[in-house]
Design goal:
ABC_transporter-like_ATP-bd, alpha/beta, ATP hydrolysis activity, Rossmann fold, 16 helices, 21 strands, 6-stranded mixed beta sheet, about 25% helix, about 600 residues, 3 domains
């Protein structure tokens, strides 16, 4: 309540200046020169979150906010949403362009792409694999129903979609035009949970644009993350059109390695508690760069890049003519792919090409992973030839492997948008607890010490406060688990991404209190801690700071994964791969459900 009332009170300054004469200001955002604090913290003894912020956005300008530290970039957006205190507050209000009757709390909105919102907003685990089979009632909402709801269309819940969802002629024309331009028209009657990650991102933008009451200023945080190369220019072109029309005005949040769209005229660079603003040309020349004085390089000697030839071991995954289809619609079409120990793969494909479905087959999550039987069938392109079909994981037919055994952390380690969204955010779950679940692939820690299953002690650096020394008593396997916990925390903890002072206490922080980037880094530790035979990393860098990304890439291309492990990485950016051609990197590309190795 304090946040909302303070934000409206500040905005009221602007409203009182309008004394019967309505005028439209050319200033969209106005922060003349101020420090920014958390609410209740603006005292002489408190360090501000940002110092000496001087930022003014005019009509006709197109802005991007750029930050290597996604947390600081998000904090600047939170300031615009009224969640932080500006001191002194702008005399004419933060948003002079809004008319007197408009409430900034509804006129300004953010869509962040660091994760997918879950149904119901609960903090426990939800079954992300439901998208491949039967879904819960709350997850049956179609894309059309969700978008219509943003337009205020609510009807008879017992009627069919066609009967109770109708728009005005004008709204319907706008709806179909925007849906077509975003490439979402073919998916309108699919449940939202069944959409690919890229399709979900576009749907969330469309929903924000269609919302009533209308959003006047839309903040899009990392909208390009997870989008394929073909989709990016189309989306940016549409965003440009929307911004030019002023319905809504748009400010982009970008990472430092993202390309600045050609239509962006001005850039605000965020970092080291400062905000530097200037023209696009100034940014491209590097004159807006902010040096982070507290960044300390990791430990390159710990992650020496191995240039020796990779050893290729036994086959871990053997797919032959694998198919996935729903009611006659083929999602995967006769996929043949072998993955061996020691191999590093880049899984490529446009949004909706079937990458997430293929990943679910590798994990054994998909119900149709059981149906890839060794029986023969008639090949679709021939009336006479007979082709074998099978899915073998770890030298066994998938249908013979119990799912709990397959999901054991020693076999498969996974970090994906689905895992990130599904993982519980309970208040009492510490970083140490989260990483420890990587040994059994579960979501609930076993035992007080986190590693569980008999480990009776921990080190001064990493264990719970009540146990200060590692003591003998566990099996060799249990001791190894403890050692691995300490190794990944040392290799991928705060020290590796430049926060030396946080290393000691990081393992005992509450997982839910971490930033999005920190949570992803912890879940990466979870995926790697058991040294699984197969590592699957899907959009793993989303939301991470630049220093985190480099620390993780350095670890992976060094000694973070061994020659007895295979790794598959899904990303649309070639530059995000930890390995290159010189490391023997191989590429498998999906195009409309058909896949082959790219040489």
């Amino acid at each position: 309540m304090q946040v909302l009332s303070s934000f409206r009170k500040g905005y009221g300054i602007q409203k009182r200046l309008i004394t019967g004469i309505k005028f439209l200001s050319t200033t969209v955002i106005d922060i003349p020169k101020a420090d920014i604090y958390s609410f209740g913290a603006a005292t002489s003894k408190t360090s501000p979150i940002f110092t000496d912020v001087e930022w003014q956005v005019k009509k006709g300008e197109s802005w991007a906010v750029v930050g290597g530290n996604s947390g600081e970039k998000n904090l600047l957006f939170q300031t615009l949403l009224g969640h932080l205190r500006i001191s002194p507050y702008p005399s004419e209000g933060l948003f002079p362009f809004l008319q007197s009757h408009q409430d900034p709390l509804s006129a300004v909105s953010i869509v962040s792409f660091t994760h997918r919102p879950r149904s119901g907003g609960n903090t426990g685990f939800y079954d992300y694999s439901a998208r491949y089979g039967a879904v819960h009632e709350e997850d049956k909402v179609t894309l059309r129903e969700s978008l219509y709801a943003s337009l205020g269309v609510v009807g008879d819940p017992f009627a069919s979609t066609e009967q109770h969802l109708t728009l005005s002629e004008q709204d319907e024309a706008i709806f179909h035009e925007l849906a077509d331009k975003m490439g979402l028209s073919p998916f309108m009657d699919l449940p939202i949970i069944a959409l690919s990650n890229g399709q979900t991102r576009r749907a969330r933008i469309l929903k924000a644009v269609l919302r009533k009451p209308r959003v006047e200023l839309l903040l899009l945080d990392e909208p390009l993350t997870g989008l394929d190369i073909q989709t990016r220019p189309k989306l940016l072109s549409l965003l440009h059109q929307l911004h030019q029309s002023g319905r809504p005005r748009i400010i982009l949040g970008l990472r430092t390695h993202d390309q600045i769209p050609e239509w962006v005229t001005n850039v605000a660079v965020v970092g080291n508690r400062r905000v530097r603003v200037g023209t696009r040309e100034c940014y491209l020349k590097g004159s807006l760069a902010i040096d982070s004085h507290n960044y300390v390089a990791g430990h390159p000697e710990t992650h020496v890049r191995r240039t020796k030839e990779k050893k290729v071991g036994e086959v871990i995954v053997d797919m032959k003519n694998v198919r996935v289809e729903y009611s006659g619609r083929q999602v995967l079409k006769d996929i043949t792919w072998k993955i061996r120990q020691g191999e590093r793969w880049h899984l490529q494909g446009t949004n909706g090409s079937g990458k997430t479905t293929l990943l679910s087959m590798l994990m054994g999550d998909h119900p149709q992973s059981y149906t890839q039987t060794p029986n023969c069938y008639v090949a679709p392109d021939s009336s006479s030839s007979v082709t074998e079909r099978h899915l073998h994981l770890f030298s066994q037919p998938r249908r013979l492997i119990p799912t709990p055994h397959l999901q054991c952390g020693s076999l498969i380690g996974v970090l994906s948008p689905e895992i990130f969204d599904a993982f519980p955010r309970r208040a009492n779950m510490k970083v140490w607890n989260v990483i420890s679940t990587g040994f059994d692939g579960g979501y609930v820690p076993r035992g007080t010490v986190g590693v569980g299953l008999g480990v009776r002690g921990e080190s001064k650096r990493y264990g719970p406060a009540e146990i200060r020394e590692f003591v003998e008593g566990g099996s060799e396997e249990e001791k190894w688990r403890f050692q691995r916990m300490a190794e990944v925390l040392e290799a991928l903890g705060p020290r590796s991404w430049g926060r030396e002072g946080e290393q000691e206490r990081f393992s005992q922080k509450a997982f839910v209190d971490l930033s999005v980037g920190e949570q992803r880094m912890v879940l990466l530790m979870r995926a790697l801690v058991a040294r699984p035979k197969l590592v699957l990393l899907d959009e793993v860098w989303s939301g991470m700071d630049e220093e985190m990304v480099e620390a993780a890439r350095s670890y992976l291309r060094g000694d973070g994964v061994g020659d007895d492990q295979a790794v598959v990485v899904i990303t649309h950016w070639d530059g995000e791969m930890p390995w290159g051609d010189e490391d023997g990197l191989r590429r498998f590309r999906l195009i409309e459900g058909e896949g082959k190795e790219v040489v």
